[in-house]
Amino acid sequence: MCTAILIADAKVPKVAIADMIVYKVGMKIDPKERNEKYRFRTPYQFTVYEPDKLAKAAMRFIKEGGFSDDTERNYVLENGRYKAFAYVREGIHSFTNVERAKKHINRDAYFYIGEFIIPKGSKYYENACGNIVSNKIIFKQFLSCV
């Protein structure tokens, strides 16, 4: 997954001034032990997130053209010309709202929406479409089966 970010917005990542609630699409993984909570696994990178444990990743954006999905076309076109933007290719990708996350669910599989927290002090990029990429995240709970 990659996220298109306007170059003007991507020069320096933002820093979370408070904990931020975000959402990811994934699957339930059985607990390691009987008394533990279910773990969360992403469908494409197969990253496993343990409940209430901090996960970290490096972030990197690359200046180049193209679109990550059709919704980005709406905000890079200005006065008939495309603005310069970059893709954030590495980092922990999530969504700022549940509705945006639901749009990325494959209906042929058993996916869940997971609620996560980007902790205060984390670095992140966010685009106008509700996609967010951060360097830290904590899995809190499963919200629903869709």
> What structural category do the secondary elements indicate?
mainly beta
Q: Characterize the biggest β-sheet.
A: 6 strands, antiparallel
What is Rg? 16 Å
Low-confidence stretches: 67-77
How many domains? 1
How would you describe the overall organization of this protein?
With 146 residues, this protein is mostly beta strands. The chain has one domain (3-145). Helix content is 9%, strand content 46%. The strands form four sheets. It has a six-stranded antiparallel β-sheet with strand order 5-4-3-12-15-6. Strand 13 (123-126) and strand 14 (131-134) form a beta hairpin. Residues 67-77 have low confidence and may be disordered.
Provide tags for this entry:
mainly beta
Structure summarized in a few sentences:
This protein is mainly beta. The protein is 9% helix and 46% strand. The protein has one domain.
SSE topology:
Elements: E1 3-6, H1 7-10, E2 14-15, E3 20-29, E4 39-41, E5 48-49, E6 54-56, E7 60-63, H2 73-76, E8 77-78, E9 81-82, E10 85-90, E11 92-95, H3 98-102, E12 112-118, E13 123-126, E14 131-134, E15 136-145
Antiparallel strand pairs: 1-10, 2-13, 3-4, 3-12, 4-5, 6-15, 7-10, 8-9, 11-14, 12-15, 13-14
